[in-house]
Amino acid sequence: MSAQRIECDLLAESGVAHGFFTRQGGVSTGVYASLNGGRGSRDAPEAVSQNLALMADALGVRPENFLVPYLTHSPDCMIVDAPFGADRPRCDALVTTTRGLALGVTGADCGILLFSDASAGVIGAAHAGWKGAFTGVLETTLQRMEEAGASRPAIRVVLGPTIARDSYEVGAEFRDRFLAQNARNARFFGLSRNAGHFMFDLPAYIGAKLAAEGVGEFRNLALDTYADEERFYSYRRSVHRGEPDYGRLVAAIALA
Asked: Are 106 and 127 in contact (CB under 8 A)?
């Protein structure tokens, strides 16, 4: 059994262990097959724990040092320097300078991002669905990285498997919320074939926010969770099919 992951040269070149883990290479079954990393799912807890241990092994850390917070779709980010055990903090991003710790976030359509300033030895991971991105989780993560010693122009960011614009239909009230924040957000919405609906480009919205924040380099892997069932879980796909639950993908990073 081997946890399957996608790596990005932008992070590999900075000397960090990382992975955007697919749904392949784990022990879960049914709708969770097979590398489900979601403790919040209704999958067997022992299967999720074994899957996370496989991911930890792939990154070269102990299972207890593989840290995944309790996600709440918030702008909150926490700096960590030690394992937090079963009492997971409620936040949507983590930052560390501590070697031997791996930081992870889960997703199943939401943006899952990994951050690295290799020269400063600061890494981060963030979960950015529309709500987290809208309310500031990307900005907060960058602020926490700077507090830990990172330099914003040196920070590299990679966006992993995320629902793409062609798969993300939203209503007019959703679009109106973004336009009320900034009229220029209209560029992230295209017309849908269904009247009164729009196609939202979450990856582009995330990328634009990071560019505005002055990060050194950003890479979008351009992998659509909804369209690629073989490799990725998708919340929206599960809803459209009337499935009872769905698995969660994991993105994780560790200082080598």
From this structure: yes
